[in-house]
Every structure is written in structure tokens, then in C-alpha cells.
Amino acid sequence: IVVTGSDDHLWKMWALPDGNIIMTGEGHTDWLSGCCFHPSGTQVVTSSGDTTVQIWDFSKRGCILTLEGHARTVWDCSWHSCGNFVASASMDNTNKIWDVNSERCRYTMCGHKDSVNSIEFLPFSNTVLTSSADKILSLWDART
Predict the structure, then answer these.
(1) Distance between CA atoms of 131 and 25, rounded to whole angstroms?
(2) How far apart are the C-alpha atoms of 123 and 118, rounded to whole Å?
(3) What pLDDT tens digit does each residue of the chain (144 aa) get?
(4) Cβ distance 121 to 137 under 8 Å?
(5) CA distances, 72 to each of 24, 39, 124 (Å)
(6) Which of 11, 22, 51, 106 holds its CA 20 to 30 A away from the CA of 66?
(7) Are 54 and 62 in contact (CB under 8 A)?
(8) Please, is 54 exposed, middle or buried when counting C-beta atoms within 10 Å of its C-beta (0-12, 13-18, 19+)?
(9) What residues contact residue 52 under an 8 Å CB cut-off, 6+ apart?
């Protein structure tokens, strides 16, 4: 499976090796910057220049949740291995931890002095790794 974004704000999921389109998502109002599969493989999370993070469900064939709270472009997103939390990295110099069940931001982490460009949970851990345009890699405890 391959997920691709385009300038028309659509993303497409392609099956390999036959190349058939499995699903197309429309909902972001600006370009797509990142995507990540849910650990169960039933959902995908996307980030966008429209400052939002969206969660897409394959069985419902559409967006089931839009997370808003960043002030600028969201560059990257990542699922926690338990599947209940999403991390996002933004041009607003912050990264956020979102609780998908309560549909709210649990933590906003500040400390980078420039755009946070990527974010990733350490598998089976509460540790988050970020990289920033300030030339710093940071490790965060997502619980504090």
C-alpha cells in the first residue's frame, strides 16, 4: 500500500503491485505534508499546510476526526503504538500530543526555536523524538 498526496488537496491510497486505487481522501484545504498508518492498519492520520491533523477510517471511507490547534503548517504526524494518541509537529515551533478518544490536545510541547519538521514515537514507549529547523533533535516524555 502506498499513500500519495497532491496539490489538489486529495490523497490516494494505492494497492501494490496492481496499482489500483483503494481509497481517496478529500478534506484538507491545503497541501498534505505527512501521513502515518494506525498500528492496526484500519486508519491513517494526515498532516497539512491548513494547520490541521485529520484521521481517516478505511471502513467508513472518510475523515472521522479533524484536530485543530496549531497556528501554522503541520509538517508531520505519528501514531503511538497503542493507537490512542497522535503526535504532530508544526511550523509554529511546537509539537502536540492528541488524545484521539477525547478528541483534544493532551499536551503542547514548546522548546524548539524554529519549525518542528518531524515527529515520531519510540515504539511501545511514551518517548517522542522531534527534529527541528533549529538544528536540534529533542527527546520528550509525552506524559509530562
Answers:
(1) 28
(2) 16
(3) 455 555 555 666 666 677 776 667 677 888 889 989 999 989 999 999 999 999 998 888 889 999 999 999 999 999 999 999 999 999 999 999 999 999 999 999 999 999 999 999 999 999 999 999 999 999 999 887
(4) no
(5) 25, 27, 29
(6) 22
(7) no
(8) buried
(9) 28, 66, 67, 68, 70, 74
3-class SS letters over the chain: CEEEECCCCEEEEECCCCCCEEEEEECCCCCEEEEEECCCCCEEEEEECCCEEEEEECCCCEEEEEEECCCCCEEEEEECCCCCEEEEEECCCEEEEEECCCCEEEEEEECCCCCEEEEEECCCCCEEEEEECCCCEEEEECCC
